[in-house]
Automatic annotation (TrEMBL):
Pfam families: HTH_1, LysR_substrate. Keywords: DNA-binding, Transcription, Transcription regulation. Belongs to the LysR transcriptional regulatory family. PROSITE patterns: HTH_LYSR. Residues 1-58 form the HTH lysR-type domain. The lineage of its organism: Bacteria, Bacillati, Bacillota, Bacilli, Bacillales. InterPro entries: HTH-type_LysR_regulators, LysR_HTH_N, LysR_subst-bd, WH-like_DNA-bd_sf, WH_DNA-bd_sf. GO terms for molecular function: DNA binding; DNA-binding transcription factor activity. One of its GO terms (cellular component) is cytosol. This is Transcriptional regulator. The gene is cynR_3.
Length: 291
């Protein structure tokens, strides 16, 4: 087998079938089918369970899929690695960003890094923490910024900053004049939360359960700026990181929550035992020096 065979196989898995892989690669389906059969013949074991209507990976197929992705990533990055060794210091870094993080601090460090390595390019993807971890595990991104702690058996991590989580509500809300509020006081409130991709969602639900109730969620979102419109419409209350609260306009009240769990920490994470490009390693070292 060769790199081309591995590329065909990975694309079949990613596209959930040979027909879609054929369209994606602009290659005739019989060519891809033959390549898969050649791999299975060489390995002397099936990679797909063909008893289902859809192609399903066997145990051997799953292992082969993960290894193929690693090999293809190494192959793709080889020219950049060679260039970096001779002083060109080019490269590309794909970074997953939490949709509820303090962008100012990150962008400032990124700007400093760009001054030192002007030939490095970036792909910035905004998501919830769970999705960022999923993307790292599947080698879709190089670095993620998300909630700590993370599973140390899977990820390396570097603390970035800590902050309070604040209750946010319309100025006309009956709790608007309070300086501090306990989670138990929100039992009968409607909640505007981030969706299940965000660890912030889990944290708020856990705090509510500890206070004796399950929050009544009336809306789930993926972008914090939608909250302003929902609060204006009196749809409910929300709990947000302090840095996001500071970006909202003055029409809303933010109130301290008397709950020790209403703090969180964000950090930089990357996958253990994954090959990192020269540019990515330099970026991690750069972050360590400034945090």
């Amino acid at each position: 087998m060769d790199i081309k065979h591995m590329k065909y196989f990975v694309e079949v898995v990613n596209q959930h079938g040979m027909t879609n892989a054929s369209k994606s690669l602009y290659i005739a389906q019989p060519t891809i089918s033959k390549a898969i059969k050649d791999i299975e013949k060489e390995l002397n074991m099936p990679l797909f369970d063909r008893s289902n209507r859809q192609l399903v990976l066997t145990d051997a197929g799953m292992v082969f899929y993960q290894k193929c992705k690693e090999i293809l990533a190494l192959y793709k990055d080889l020219p950049r690695e060679i260039n970096s060794l001779v002083g060109l210091e080019t490269g590309h870094i794909s970074i997953g960003l939490s949709a509820v993080m303090n962008m100012n601090k990150f962008i400032h460090i990124l700007g400093e890094f760009h001054q030192q390595y002007p030939n490095v390019t970036y792909n910035l993807v905004e998501n919830g923490g769970k999705m960022i971890e999923h993307q790292l595990i599947n080698d879709e991104i190089d670095i993620g910024i998300t909630t700590l702690p993370v599973d140390q058996s899977i990820f390396h991590s570097l603390p970035l900053y800590q902050e309070e989580l604040k209750l946010v509500l319309n100025q006309e809300h009956h709790l608007a004049n309070y300086q501090k509020v306990k989670m138990a006081m929100l039992k009968d409130e409607d909640f505007i939360l981030f969706n299940e991709d965000f660890y912030l969602n889990d944290k708020i639900i856990e705090a509510a359960k500890n206070a004796g109730y399950i929050p009544n969620t009336v809306s789930k979102i993926s972008q914090w700026n939608f909250i302003e419109n929902l609060l204006n419409a009196h749809l409910g209350v929300s709990i947000l990181p302090e840095n996001i609260v500071n970006l909202l306009d003055s029409n809303f009240k933010n109130i301290t929550l008397e709950d020790p769990g209403m703090r969180w920490e964000l950090g930089v994470i990357w996958k253990r035992d994954k090959y990192l490009s020269y540019a990515t390693r330099q970026w991690i070292d750069f972050m360590k020096q400034r945090l």
